[in-house]
Amino acid sequence: MLDLFRKKKAGLKWILWIVILGLGGSMLFLFVQTPGGVGVGPGNRDVAVVAGNPISLTQFRRRYNQVSESYGQILPLLQGDPEAIRQLNLGQQALDPLISAYAIHYGAQAMGIEATREEIREYITNLPLFQQNGQFIGTERYLQFLQANNITPADFEDDMRREIVGNKLARVITDGIRATPEEVRQEFLESTEEIKIRYAAIDPETVAPETLELEDLRAYFEEQKENYRTPEQRKVKYVIFSVQLDEVELTEEQIQIRMASIAEKQEVRASHILLTLPSSDARQRGEEILEKLRAGADFGELAKEHSEDPATAANGGDVGFFGRGAMVPEFENAAFSLEPGEISDLVATNYGLHIIKVTEVHLVDSRALAESALRQEEGEKLAKNLAAKVAHEVSTGSNLETAAERYNLEIQESPFFSLGDVLPDLRVRNDFNQQVFTLSQGQTLGPYDQGGTDLVAQLMEIQPSALSEFEAVQDQVTRDLKLSRGEDIARERAFAFAQALKEEPSFEKVAAREHLQVTTTDFFTRDASIDDELGYATEILSRAFRMNEDELSPALSVGGKYVVFQVAEKSTVDEEKFEQDKDELLLQITDEKKNRFFSAWVQNVISTLYEENKIHINQPLVDSIAGL
Length: 628
Known about the structure:
The protein is of the alpha+beta class.
């Protein structure tokens, strides 16, 4: 359960979604006495300008970091591969929502829609995040929360203003849009309708001939000879330059300079008792537990007895040390407001009610952090410098063996590999293969960034592409010809079966005559798997729900098999359930229509702004942040 209420990279709270927009602040703070903001004009540190309003580097970087974080497991594999990063187009993914937000603001201004200071104040103070026991948490805690999340009050309050204005604009634009009764009924039918089918499936592998004549195999090989050509293959020898931290020497001056740049970081160790929701008596039970704790009961024992967090209950609720940003905001704010030994009131999060006890508070050792970071950086520099030195020596006449011996490096050899092969032992991307295949024999590649370490490779040998001898690929030819003939047989039998059903409508009788097995499915819906054999077969699902009972399909290719099916049964409309659900469906479909319409309206505004040359993008700056 602890992992559930720690922050997830892929699942941001609404507050962080708003922050993602990061729209610059140019208004008076609502909760702080300060002069009004100053308008920002376009400049070379703006990533874009939309209708005269700049999108700052800070705004874009915040959004880009969030997008990158959502690709957290993929990006390490793409390190140093600009082409793969370019295909993900992370820069545009980050920029598009910002442009949309400013286009909405532009459209609202054109229609005279704005938010008053009182509306913004009321909106913020009523956000659940800033409520405790039905009351606003107060200016001090509000500002502490923003500071903990690296948000300025001006930025946040301006975001809220734009949110309110956007909501107002959406209501104006979509006013009058409503789902029709026909649309509601159709949605109900599509979401609840079920059918059964009976079908016969013919698998090419099961009908393929068991044996083939040698002369047929040779004839097939001659026809398909190019398909059995071996691709060009290459072999390299290489050296990997790993980071050697024990060789790094640091000066006191370096350490002190780095320590000065490290903000003091506080961590707390806490335990908690979690009462999950929904539960009608969760709050009452929480109050009873709090009463026992205040009377001197042991926190760990009560956590073992009552906590509904399986990850921590057994060890007395201990969640370990954590810093700012590790937990959901409500939990974090409560923990960091307590002194060691103090116990919180009931703290509500999306995961339930928590009682939190802080057991330790300490500051992270900035010297240790500084030394660790510096050693890693200096180690990487030494490794990269040595890699560059070796690559230069080899490319200017030396050979890799000599350089490896001189610097006490281990030289390794790859197996032969083709352009499309994966080389897991080298931990390289396919761009490594592409670069190797541009080399002449003896030429050098590198330094090549593997993602933290470098390698230098030298091309040893080239095996050119060649036609295979029949005997070398006879087994593969046999498999291919069997499958080809099985495919022909399965297709012919399926088409013959479908034709026979037109003359004799009894599915079972014709199938028995053709020695085909008939399967009748259970009921399934449009968005469900049909059965274990057919799975989620779109070729069938796209047809079946448009067909009548007993109607027959043509022969279809489905997942490598040939299938003919008949609609065996269709469910009837549950009118009672429709009456129960139609009001909710009406709201749901209306919201969807409004969202689609508003999205199209915003895209139209953006297109118009582009046509009028009112959107300017600093593409070099976007690309530099995206690492391109």
